[in-house]
C-alpha cells in the first residue's frame, strides 16, 4: 500500500490510500516448478514477480529449511514428495521436489572364485531406510557399504555359481533389487595312483 497526502484547505488534509498491484509470483523462465532428484542431491528452484523480495521455506528432512532471494537450492534426505514455498509480500507459490530411491551400484569382486575363497559385495544406494542381502548375509547398512562372503563348494561338488540379491526398501514401502553372480569352480578330483 502507498499512502498519499494532499492538502485541500489550510490546516486540513485529505488522505487517500492507493493500491499497488505487484506482478504475479511465478516460476522463472527455463526452470521447472516440479523437479525430481535422488536423496541428498541438491536442486535449485527459481521464482520471479511479486515485490522482488523473496523468502523460502522447506519441510523437515530437507536442508536448508529456509532461504531468501529468487533462487533456492535445497536437498532432501529421504524418498518422497516435498513442498517448498516461495513468498513475496502477500503472495506465495509452491514448488515440488520428488526424491526417488535408487540402487546406484551393486558389485561382487572377484566374480569368479575357487571353493574356500571370498568375494566382496559392495553397494551404493540413496533414499532407502533398509537394505538386506540374501544367501545368509542379512541386513546391511543403506546408502553404502561392503561385505566379504566366504564361498565353499557343496557336498556333491556341483555348485557352479551363487547369486546374491540386494533388496532395499524406502520410507514409502517401495522395494528395489539388484543381483550379482559369483562363479564357483569345482573341487579337483584326486586321482588314485595304483602302485605297480
Structural write-up:
- With 196 residues, this protein is an all-beta fold.
- Helix content is 0%, strand content 60%.
- The chain has no helices and 19 strands.
- The chain has strands at 2-9, 12-18, 26-27, 34-38, 43-48, 55-57, 62-63, 66-68, 71-76, 80-88, 91-100, 102-109, 112-113, 117-126, 128-133, 138-140, 144-151, 161-170, 175-184.
- The strands form five sheets. A five-stranded mixed sheet has the order 4-11-10-6-8, with no helix packed on it.
- Strand 1 and strand 2 (12-18) form a beta hairpin.
- It starts with a strand and ends in a 12-residue tail after the last strand.
- Mean pLDDT is 88; it is low at 1-5.
Relevant terms:
mainly beta, 196 residues, five-stranded mixed sheet, 60% strand, 19 strands, disordered N terminus
Order of strands in the sheet with most strands: 4-11-10-6-8
Q: Secondary-structure element sequence?
A: EEEEEEEEEEEEEEEEEEE
Cα end-to-end separation: 115 Å
Could you list the spans in which at least 5 consecutive residues all have pLDDT below 50?
1-5
In DSSP terms (H or I, runs of 4 or more residues), the helix count works out at 0
Helix content: under 10%
* C-alpha geometry: rod-shaped
Could you say which structural class the secondary elements and strand pairing correspond to?
A: mainly beta
How many beta-strand elements?
19
Mean pLDDT: 88
Oligomer: single chain
Tell me the major beta sheet: 5 strands, mixed
Strand composition percent: over 45%
Q: Give the C-alpha Rg.
A: 31 Å
